[in-house]
Amino acid sequence: MVFSPLFVTAALVLLLTPGPAVLYIVARSMNQGRRAGLVSVLGVELGNSVHVVAATLGLSAILLTSALAFNVIKYVGAVYLVYIGIRTLLTPVKTEVDPGEVQKSLRRTFTQGFVVAALNPKTALFFLAFLPQFVDYSRGNPSVQFLALGLLFVAMAITTDSLYALLSGTAGNWLRRNAWFLAFQRYFSGMIYIGLGVSAALTGGDRK
Predict the structure, then answer these.
(1) Domain ranges across the chain
(2) Over the stretch 21-31, which tens digit does the pLDDT of each residue have?
């Protein structure tokens, strides 16, 4: 299969434009460091891969035709984002972290990233709207092309999101040397999560 340069260019422009996933990764990276940021990238992109596979199998079409399914997933995802934000706000600042707690935190970060992405119905609709534009029926099975394009998009997203994680994680490490930032970053990150949840619930309105 030959991938269209137009697809790569369009995908890159979209991926470099900060959206909910990027803001989530940046918040995690600044809050917990580069390692946690990269773990959140893997969680988010695994969740996006679920949408790619579902769209390939035609399951995402349910979200396109069912207002109930769309709204249920939309609000569950929004509530989960708000929950993460509230939990972040209520978690005390620690200057020393136990290694075992770090591993537990990384597992939680990965799981949260996966859930945030997997419960975003707009991602499913995005793949349904974006990927078919680059499927060439003369080149073989459309489903195989659809899956390949989706996985390529996810692979590109891992690269661009990792850059965001590394840059914001580095900035976070520098800022955490200041005592005041240890408290500020907790409120900053928490409000980002809550804001993303509210935005996910309100932006675009319900499907009727």
Answers:
(1) 20-202
(2) 787 888 888 87
